[in-house]
Structures are given as C-alpha cells and as structure tokens.
Amino acid sequence: MKATAIKSLAAAFALCAFAGAASAQDASLSVEDPWVRATVPNQHATGVFMRLTSAAPGRLVAVESQAAKHVEIHEMAMQDNVMKMRQVPGIDLPAGQAVELKPGGYHVMLIDLARQIAPGEHIALTLVVEDARRQQRRVAVDAVARPLNATAAPAAGHGH
Asked: What are the boundaries of each domain within the chain?
C-alpha cells in the first residue's frame, strides 16, 4: 500500500513538472501587473489594466470574465480637445514590445458588473490573443482589485 501511494505521488509530481514545462513553452505572452479598479455599491462598470509583452506579433482581440455581462477593449484619446473613450476591436501586440493597458489609454472595461468589487479581491479574466496566422489562444489572468483612487502600479518595492 505504501509503495503504491509513493508511486502515485511520484506520478503526480512528474505530471505537474510536465504540465509546468508545457505551459512555459507555450507562454509567448507575458502579462505583468494585472489589476482592476475597485467599485462602490451600485457602480456598473470598472476598468482593468496590465502590461502585455508578446514574444511574437499578435493582437489582443477579446477579454472574457464572469465578473461582468460585457467585457470590452477600450481606448482613451483626445478628440477636439476632449478626452473620449471608445471601444476598439483589438490591440496590436508587436513582438518584444510592452503594451500598456493603463488609465487614460488602452484598457479593458467590465460592464454590467455582477457585483461590487472590493479592494484586494481577485478577478479572473481570459485574454483572447490572435497570432499572425489568425489562430487564437486563451490566456488566464488573475487581476487584483486596487482602491478607487489607484492610477498605476504601486511604487517599486511595495508590490506583492
């Protein structure tokens, strides 16, 4: 019985090691500092921000989350001296270049929220990225909610 348990445990560790190696090889998209702005009661939408770096040319074409009925990719831009937000069909991800999704620029909008999002809460997202051959892959992301007044990443040395 003890030998069987040890063999089962060894097999489980081997499987985990293989799975980790497979995901590392497939990880051609780096997602850094994903965060979502916390909300107040009855707030219906909020923004999600992160830094994306793709090893090969690609395009972020969609984002999915159970936290909201609708998830859209948006851009903030000056138009006639007024800052305006508009939905965009995607964001180009040039090979090796970081693309910032940040307040005042490209970002993801969670619309018709399922509930209030509290600071420190984790929100699951799925990024849908299309490569040059138009093949799509899905990348799971865990975004941490920051307070309403958050505008960027915490100061260096204060991250978790």
From this structure: 29-146
Alpha-carbon distance of 150 to 160, in angstroms, equals: 16
- List pLDDT tens digits, range 70-108: 999 999 999 999 999 999 999 999 999 999 999 999 999
Contacts of 75 (CB under 8 A, 6+ apart): 85, 86, 88, 105, 106, 107
Distances (CA, A) of 70 to 21, 44, 54: 34, 11, 25
Which pair of tokens denotes residue 108? 């993801």
User: Which residue, 50, 30, 48, 49, is CA-closest to 97?
Assistant: 30
In CATH, the architecture of 29-146 is Sandwich (2.60)
Q: Is the pTM of this model over 0.85?
A: no
